[in-house]
Amino acid sequence: xxxxxxxxxxxxxxxxxxxxxxxxxxxxxxxxxxxxxxxxxxxxxxxxxxxxxxxxxxxxxxxxxxxxxxxxxxxxxxxxxxxxxxxxxxxxxxxxxxxxxxxxxxxxxxxxxxxxxxxxx
Length: 121
What we know:
Radius of gyration: 19 Å
Order of helices and strands: EHHHEE
Distance between the termini: 25 Å
Largest sheet: 3 strands, antiparallel
Number of strands: 3
Strand order of the largest sheet: 1-3-2
Structural class: alpha+beta
CATH class: Alpha Beta
Mean pLDDT: 91
Helix content: 25-40%
Number of helices: 3
Number of domains: 1
CATH architecture: Alpha-Beta Complex
């Protein structure tokens, strides 16, 4: 069973968010949240909130009420480009220099670990 959460229009470039997302991809939930909580990157706060939202989405599902958070891992996490706000700043010799304020969309999918141990009767 898996659940998804999306944070849209995060006011940080997708490149910076991807650095943090690559750090936690495939990790167990507890390890990922611990790594994000103590990370110094600004994007780690947004990624942590989105992961917690995905876990809450899974727990609120009808079939997800019996799942323990210890049995979850970050299955997919990726950051895509969103809109770019263009501002201008005065440049030399009467010119205008464009400032691009980039934003991103963050998508997180958490899933339950597959039990590799099979019970024999």
